[in-house]
Structure formats: structure tokens, C-alpha cells
Amino acid sequence: MSLYIFRLPDIGEGVAEAEIVAWHVKVGQRLEEEQALVDVMTDKATVEMTSPVAGRITALHGEIGQMLAVGAPLVEVDRGEEGAIEPPAPAPAAVEAERPKPQVRRDAAPGAAPIAPAFSTRPLGEAPLATPATRRRAFELGIPLQFVAGSGPAGRITPHDLDAYIAHGGAGVVQSAGPAARTGVTETKIVGLRRKIAEKMQESKRRIPHFSYVEEFDMTELEALRRDLNENRTAERPKLTPLPFLMRALVKLLPEFPSVNARFDDDANILRVYDGIHIGIATQTPGGLMVPVVRHVETLDLWDCARALARVTAAARDGSARREELTGSTITLTSLGAIGGISATPVINHPEVAIIGPNKLVERPVIVNGQVVIRTMMNVSSSFDHRIVDGYDAARFIQGLKRLIERPALLFLDQK
Asked: Are 253 and 401 in contact (CB under 8 A)?
């Protein structure tokens, strides 16, 4: 036997450990050289590890979700045989372990007796075995003991067996009043990207005192402009959503509120205010929430904003986004589109200090110049780091954004 131990390699500078997110092999499997072994995730990227040798896998180290240090064993491979190797036949004890055994209630106390399957049909004339107390309880519940499987000695029916019969929809009085209770519990370990998202959200809420502010925007004029631009656009121009207009509004407004376009290093107590505007776009992907970044939005016109927005969100969804496209934002936009609801309390993308969340567009009656008219309205939710942005300044900022959006011609002028 020639044993080869594949260890977690040094993936990159500054990486001391990695999380196992997916195994592609199992013990006993024949392994080919360069075959995929395992996916591991670091703070920088998800990396697929391949085998440098061929052989039979004898051991795997680490479960999905487990963190391993660089240099820790991952896979043990027996290189002693070159032909196809079948997994060893299971030992008698293993065969015995595979045989069906009576089920044990998950909610039963430790040491409780196992219970048989809930339903049973005995041969004609065979009396079910049960204690007087069990028979009395079955009578009170309206349960025919003939159909209850027993898990006690010689097939005796126990109180636990009655509980199992009821839980599985048995025709007792308790169950006849409605559907059977659902008692199943599914446990899912949070690993990989979902765990990173959870850690990021927890860090943001723990470290940042959020101040949230919601204002309604009259989108009627902007929506009329947007429809006209979309209907008359050329083939090379992308379709416009409200987000590119909000991006252009931020470009116009942020120079007046520089501390909003910033990142706060609260460990070093340093606020970094940026001249360039790098807008993160919160994007739902198959793997979870990601925030790709449109950089230097101040250099883009309305159509460029729409193109860049479509490009980075598509890259995030299909997994092709580069690391530099997922970091470095200075302020974030988050939108749920048509399901955006009435309002929200968006969580700031740490270490930024502000996040803006447009909600759903709706038509509703409003009073304009003393008259009730139908207008296209949208609530805009926002959150600010209250350590950096005072509530008064946050309100002024959103009111400035409201003015630009409600008078869209201002977006295309050199002055506000």
C-alpha cells in the first residue's frame, strides 16, 4: 500500500484557512489524476481542488462547513493498485446495521423504547396485546387497536405506539377533527456563500447603529420620461429601469453630502471619503445575495449606467464576476423590483455608511394643488450609519434625492 495524503495547499497570500463547501468524491472511489476532489471557500474566492495522483480514496477529512487550516489533511489516497478498485464488501456488522430497525421518536426521552411503524393489520382472530391502561386510552381516543403496530415485548402495544398512530393520521377521535399535525423538522447546515452572507449581515447590524428614513417620491414625470426613452431607443441602447436614474441622481447629489459617499474603518476610527462614486447593486443570485459594483459612476451617462448595471448583475448571477467587481463600493442601491413592498429597513453594506432602497411603483390618489389626482408613487427606504451621518443630514440627503427624481430634467443639467 502506497499512501498519499493530499493537504490543503496555500491558496493565496494571507489565506490561513478555508471552508469546505462541497465534496466531489467519496471513500472507496477510484480516483483519476486531475479529478475534482473538493470545493473550498476563502475570504477571497471559491476554489476547486483537483487530485495530483490516481488511486483509491481511503479517507476524507472534514465535513461540509468545516474550517481547515492550510496544510491540514484533506484526502488520503492508496496508490498501490492501478486497476479499477471496488469498494470493500461490507462487514457482517455493517450488513446487520443496514437492516430495518424499529423507529425511535425524536421527541422521546433518552432511553425510551423504540416504536414500530404506525399502522398494522393483524391476521383475523389475533387479539392485539395491550395493558388495561393502554386499552382505556385507545377507547377514549376512538383508536381501533387492531390497526396499531406494537413495539413492546411480543408485539404489545405501548402508549408510544398510540402516539405514533395518531401522529401518522390514524383514525382516532383526536385526528378526525382535522388534518394530522406535521411534526417533521428539516435541519440545514449554513455553509459557503450563505454563511458568508450571514456573517456579513451580523457584522453590519452588530457594528453599525442604523438610522432608517422613508420618504415617498412622486415618480409620474420620471416614469413618463422613462417610457418615452424606452419606446424611442435605438437597438444598441439597453432598456431603462428606475435604477439608472437613481444612479445619476446620486452623482449629482453626493458632492453636496461627501460623508455619505464614504467607508468607515471603525477599528482604526478613520472615515474615508471618496471623490469617485462606486455604487454597489444588491443582487439576488442562485447562491444568495451579492453586491457587484459599478465603478466611477460619475463618468457614465444614463445609458452607460444601464449597461454597466446589466453587466455586473448578470456576472454576479452566473458566477463570472471577478473579485474586483464584488468589492470597493462606497454606497449601495438595493431594490426588490415589482415585489418591493411599501417600505423596508435595508442593512448597510459594511463598512459603507449608507444604503438606498427604492420600493414598488404604485398608482394611487394624491392631492395636488387641492385636487385629487392619480399619480405614480414610490416609497424610498434608506439606512445611514448614525455615527457618521446625523438624522438631520440623512433627511436632507433624501429630500435632495426626492427633488432630483421628481424633476428629472435636473438630472441632465450642469447645475441643480
From this structure: yes
Query: Over 90: is that where the pLDDT of 194 sits?
Result: no
- 210-218 and 3-7: which strand pairing? unpaired
pLDDT in tens, 218-234: 999 999 999 999 999 99
Q: SS3 breakdown of the chain: % helix, strand, coil, rounded to 5?
A: 30, 25, 45
Does the domain at 3-78 match CATH 2.40.50.100? Answer given as yes
SS3 34: coil
CATH code at 103-176: 4.10.320.10
Average pLDDT, the chain: 84
The 10 Å Cβ neighbour count of residue 166 is: 20
Choices 3.30.450.20, 3.10.180.10, 3.30.559.10, 1.10.510.10: CATH for 210-412:
3.30.559.10
Specify the pLDDT at position 170.
Answer: 66
According to DSSP, residue 258 is labeled: G
Active site residues: 386, 390
pTM (whole model) above 0.70: no
